[in-house]
User: What shape does this take?
Amino acid sequence: KVNMELQNDRSKPKQELEERDALIDTILRQQALINGTQDLIWSVDTELRIITANQSFAKNIKALTGRDIREGDDVLVKEFGQDRLNRWRQYYKRALDGEEFLIKEDIYNPLKQAKQYSLISLIPMYDQSNNLFGIACYSKDITPDTLNLLALEHARARLEKIMDSSLDMICTVDERGTILSV
Assistant: This one.
């Protein structure tokens, strides 16, 4: 019995090392996951300081502001301009009030030298005691879809203008001869 207890005592440090290694492995896998996307992933605390951010977010902030962003830095920086800062303060406030929501935003991306459209989610984060401690944020580039929709809208408006200004009667009918538009 004493020998078994001694063996268990000796295995404790080994078990603790294995648990620590498993935790480190999990953390590294999570970091690889959030850094393996071009989408922007970041979180902020209740004081609007960065808790964590993926490489895409850091790279984007660097391109927009010229500065590196790290844990503990303010997420709102003056280089964004007063209008954008005010808008984002309101977004973060809504999330800190417990609201989960999506926003669409466009911004000039100096890395791509073009306007970029994003769909951004802001989700309140709670600890085990259900106390709000921050906001998880995710931004997906929806530029291709948005540009396609804009092109379709432009083509529809142009076609509608042509049809409305024509002196001839133009109509569309279905296969049964029902008039669909005039």
Q: What stands out?
A: The chain has a mean pLDDT of 85. The longest helix spans residues 2-35. The beta strands are 40-45, 50-53, 101-109, 114-126, 132-141, 172-173, 179-181. The longest strand covers residues 114-126.
